[in-house]
Amino acid sequence: MHPRTPPQVYVVGLYIHRSDLAQLQRLLLTTPPDQPTTPHLQPPIRTLLRIAPVRATNWTHLRDGFVRAILANSPPSDTTDDFSAPLAEFKSLFHPAPHIPRAVPAGKKIYILRGASGQLCVLYAGEGEGEGERLVRLGAGDGGVVRDRRIGRALWEGYLGQGKVASEQLRGRVCEGLEGVKRRNGVVGESGWVGLERGVAEER
Question: How much is the pLDDT for 199?
Answer without folding.
Answer: 63
